From TrEMBL:
UniProt similarity note: Belongs to the free Met sulfoxide reductase family.
Gene3D superfamilies recorded: 3.30.450.40
Source organism superkingdom: Eukaryota
GO molecular function, one term: L-methionine-(R)-S-oxide reductase activity
Record SUPFAM superfamilies: GAF domain-like
InterPro entries noted in UniProt: FRMsr_CS, GAF, GAF-like_dom_sf, Phosphatase_reg/MetRdx
A GO cellular-component term linked to this record: cytosol
Span of domain GAF: 25-176
Organism for this UniProt entry: Exophiala viscosa
Protein name: GAF domain-containing protein
Length: 177
């Protein structure tokens, strides 16, 4: 398989079909690679191209990427990982912002329909109007998060949550963190 082709998503796919194609491509990409940087970098690319193949609001995604536990301050801070989009905050304290809330404790998905209604939202890109953050777990422990921002309000729904949680599960178990 020519892996670069994995970034091509037909505009005729439904969102569920697009997530299924992404999961299948990523499964194949991570098969012989356990390095988390390589795998999350390719996942950020796949997510970006997938959202931009879909109708609005998905096509208004303006940031897709990862924050991981910062090894220099274990358990207390996230640090920027691979992403697509504008330059972003380098570190986020656990418990702060949407990412820090999703990474706290056992981790939970946080779906924010309107960032103005989420107290403590950290505005890395002033274009962002909605956001979804999904924890990544390895052996039951949170190791990082997937973070997706959208320039439209209500950019994400339960289908996005389901699709991203499946991606998080795959990455959690298929990388060395
Ligand atoms: N909005 C995030 C910060 C990261 S950026 O969106 C890339 C937050 O509140 O944690």
């Amino acid at each position: 398989m020519v892996h670069a082709d994995a970034s091509n998503f037909s505009s005729s796919l439904s969102k569920a079909e697009a997530y299924a194609q992404l999961l299948s491509s990523l499964t194949s990409l991570v098969q012989d690679q356990r390095n988390w940087v390589a795998n999350t970098a390719n996942a950020a690319s796949l997510l970006w191209h997938m959202y931009h193949s879909l109708p609005a609001p998905s096509s208004s995604v303006n940031w897709s990427g990862f924050y991981v536990l910062d090894p220099s301050d274990p358990g207390k801070q996230l640090i920027l990982g691979p992403f697509m989009g504008k330059v972003a905050c380098q570190t986020i304290r656990i418990g702060k912002g949407v990412c820090g809330a999703a990474a706290e404790g056992e981790g939970r998905t946080v779906l924010v329909k309107d960032v103005e209604e989420f107290p403590g939202h950290i505005a890395c890109d002033s274009d962002s109007r909605s956001e979804i953050v999904v924890p990544l777990r390895s052996s039951g422990k949170v190791v990082g998060v997937i973070d997706i921002d959208c320039a439209d309000v209500q950019g994400f729904d339960q289908e996005d949550q389901k699709g991203l949680e499946a991606i998080a599960e795959l990455l959690g178990k298929s990388c060395d963190w």
